[in-house]
Amino acid sequence: MATLTDTPLRYGLVSRIFHWGMALLFLCQFASAAAHWALPRENALLETLWSYHTTLGTTLFLLVLLRGLWGLSQLSNRPEPEPGLLGRAALLGHLALYALMVIIPLLRLIAAAGGTRGLSYLGIEIFAPRAEKIAWMDAAAEWHGELGWLLFFVVIGHILMAVVWHNRIQKDDTLRRMA
Fold this sequence. Notes:
The chain is mainly alpha-helical. It has one domain: Fumarate Reductase Cytochrome B subunit (Up-down Bundle), CATH 1.20.950. It has helices spanning 13-38, 44-51, 53-74, 84-113, 135-138, 140-170, 174-178, and strands at residues 119-121, 124-127. Strands 1-2 form a two-stranded antiparallel sheet. Helix 1 (13-38) packs antiparallel against helix 2, helix 1 (13-38) packs antiparallel against helix 3 (53-74) and helix 4 (84-113) packs antiparallel against helix 6 (140-170). The longest helix has 31 residues, at 140-170. The chain is elongated.
């Protein structure tokens, strides 16, 4: 039976649910962003995909905070990192993922706080609409989008490292520990 907590041999059930559940949600989030970028404005598919972007982004932000707290509580239980340069690169890659997963939604929250549309999450008003936007806060929305694409490419790198480097070249058990 799967243990809830992490062990030196394998990530626990909670860590794996966070990882794979959030991976699926990020896939949906990236699909909505790609549709927003690629499809014509008056498009039913775009409207459908874009309609959940804010709610999903807010959900992901809350999940990444919970996942971060869980991860910190499991640090001493987790598998040892790879030694040397590759281990440091993996650590930096994971830190970049987490930093972007926190910074990107924070930028959108700043933009929403200073914007004319406000922000609601699951029917709860987080920020009321403003009569006039606050320019410096509104500018955060641009960084939100640009860093979102950076996150997309960092995630692609993460996947490639897991599949190509660990699974195909090293033939180690990295993927099995997270499966």
